């Protein structure tokens, strides 16, 4: 669905590239988490996937990105937006309307969706993220978690095949963060939407993402099935990525020679693992 081939990108005037020879493929229906320390190039990689780089941010672009077969360099942002929807880091800046319903409507109108289809699409999108009851609320009166859901509903109304999100839980408390991820997992499983999410909270990625990509100073350090990637706990810590404690513990047990078949990604799995070893 997304094919990033040997992409190197430097923002205009920057001393070093923000992305340096990055190649990775995201299959249709995948759920990919992108992680790495601040400045590693996570947002830039996301922009390369949705065409914001190089269409909006100018600079030196080498390599190729294909989105559902289309070369992003040669396809307009408008055309790309029929395939990929984006929730940017600053949700407040992304909102254009004063009320929830209008926010969802606006995108549909802008997209040229026939007028008689719009009410049903608004209903569907609000129901999909579980905020039908917020329909007439002023966006300014909503909590961070609720705003995040409105931003999601507004892009889901466009029925994208790919959804990319930049740190969607950055401003949220743990409970709302989990809600957002469980919603993404649901959309991914039920509607088959391909999800790419930049996230700092490794615990959430370890639980919900199928695959993980780790960026380190613009280079792709790891990309693979989440447990395979988390198995490199020591190196991830060196890069500046915190690994869930359950995983660190499993790595320690593994390194001590205990039979660790599958690394634990959360507390329940760690308990299972330890009980297995004790037995
Ligand atoms: N608009 C920009 N202009 C110039 N340099 C930028 C711009 N945005 C990001 N950068 C630089 O590119 C690198 C990667 O940034 P970014 O992709 O935002 O990293 P992350 O999202 O992982 O924090 C950093 O060195 C950052 O300073
Ligand atoms: Mg960023």
UniProtKB/TrEMBL annotation:
Indicate where this protein resides in the cell: Cell membrane
Recorded protein name is ABC transporter ATP-binding protein
One MF annotation (Gene Ontology) recorded for this entry: ATP hydrolysis activity
| UniProt xrefs under SUPFAM superfamilies | P-loop containing nucleoside triphosphate hydrolases
Q: What is its main location?
A: membrane
Residue limits of the ABC transporter domain? 2-242
Instruction: List the GO cellular component terms.
Output: ATP-binding cassette (ABC) transporter complex
| Top-rank lineage group of the source organism | Bacteria
Keyword terms of this UniProt record: ATP-binding, Cell membrane, Membrane, Nucleotide-binding, Translocase, Transport
Question: Which family does the similarity line name?
Answer: Belongs to the ABC transporter superfamily.
- PANTHER family, per the entry: ENERGY-COUPLING FACTOR TRANSPORTER ATP-BINDING PROTEIN ECFA1, HEAVY METAL TRANSPORTER
Can the keyword Nuclease be found in this entry's annotation? no
Q: Which Pfam families match?
A: ABC_tran
């Amino acid at each position: 669905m997304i094919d990033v081939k040997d992409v190197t990108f430097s923002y205009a005037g920057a001393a070093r590239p923000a992305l340096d020879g990055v190649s990775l493929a995201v299959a249709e229906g995948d759920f990919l988490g992108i992680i790495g320390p601040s400045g590693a190039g996570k947002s830039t990689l996301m922009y390369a996937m949705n065409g914001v780089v190089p269409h909006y941010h100018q600079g030196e672009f080498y390599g190729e990105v294909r989105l559902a077969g289309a070369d992003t360099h040669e396809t307009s942002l408008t055309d790309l937006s029929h395939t990929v929807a984006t929730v940017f880091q600053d949700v407040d800046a992304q909102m254009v309307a004063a009320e929830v319903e209008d926010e969802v409507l606006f995108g549909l109108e802008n997209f040229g969706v026939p007028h008689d289809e719009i009410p049903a699409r608004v209903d569907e999108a609000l129901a999909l993220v579980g905020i039908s009851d917020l329909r007439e609320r002023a966006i300014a009166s909503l909590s961070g978690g609720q705003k995040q859901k409105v931003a999601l509903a507004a892009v889901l109304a466009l029925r994208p095949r790919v959804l990319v999100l930049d740190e969607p839980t950055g401003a949220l408390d743990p409970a709302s963060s989990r809600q957002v991820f469980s919603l993404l997992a649901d959309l991914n499983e039920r509607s088959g939407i391909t999800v790419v999410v930049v996230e700092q909270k490794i615990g959430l990625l370890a639980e919900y993402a199928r695959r993980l990509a780790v960026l380190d100073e613009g280079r792709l350090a790891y990309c693979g099935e989440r447990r395979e990637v988390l198995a490199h706990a020591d190196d991830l810590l060196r890069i500046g990525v915190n690994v869930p404690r359950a995983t660190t513990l499993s790595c320690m047990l593994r390194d001590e020679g205990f039979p660790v078949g599958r690394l634990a990604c959360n507390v329940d799995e760690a308990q299972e693992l330890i009980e297995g070893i004790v037995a």
